[in-house]
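Researcher: Before we compare anything, I want clean individual predictions. No alignment, no superposition, just each chain on its own. First chain goes here; please echo the sequence and then give the structure tokens.
Model: Echoing the first chain and its structure:
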Amino acid sequence: QVQLVESGGGLVQAGGSLRLSCAASGSIFSIRTMGWYRQAPGKQRELVADITSGGSTNYADSVKGRFTISRDVAKNTVYLQMNSLKPGDTAVYYCKALIITRPEGLNVYWGQGTQVTVSS
């Protein structure tokens, strides 16, 4: 059984910062890519950023230069530092991870989501 537990969401004024964390736990053999997605009301879930086990990162154009994804491999944890937040960043943020367990193999896991609200 694998769980992803997110934390760090909340309410912040435009221009402010938040740091999201997502910790994976359970019968984990290894973790491949970890990432953050978000879903605003009435919109599809979209990729915000992801990071491979080797440390390569990928960002949505809308957050480049403002958000930074990082990972602590030893702790099975991924972080999202969000700076210069805008009202358009308001959404539920979900952690996603590609995790290998035994004997199941490679599967996709999602966190429960954490609300980020940016006021103008």
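Researcher: Okay. Second chain, same rules.
Model: Second chain and its structure:
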Amino acid sequence: QVQLVESGGDLVQTGGSLRLSCAASGIIFRINAMGWYRQVPGKQRELVATIANGGSTNYADSVKGRFTISRDGAKNTVNLQMNSLKPEDTAVYYCNVHITNFYANSVEYWGQGTQVTVSS
């Protein structure tokens, strides 16, 4: 079993910055990709940013140039630096991890979510 612990969500004013972190622990053979998604009430969960094992990144168009995803492989953590925040960035942010376990199975895990609120 893999546990994901998120931190960093908060209330911030428009134009401010936040840094989200997610630490994965448990029995992990290999982490294949890590990322962040977000969801607001009444809408589908949407991709914010992902980072693959090799370091390649992918961002939603709405956050390009403002958000930066990074990963610490030794610590199995993924971070999301969010700058120039806008009210429309307000959402619950979820950490997402794709791993390969010791049975060679690919498994996906989600964090519990952390609230980001941007006031206008």
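Researcher: What stands out in the second chain?
Model: The chain has a mean pLDDT of 95. Additionally, The longest strand covers residues 30-39.
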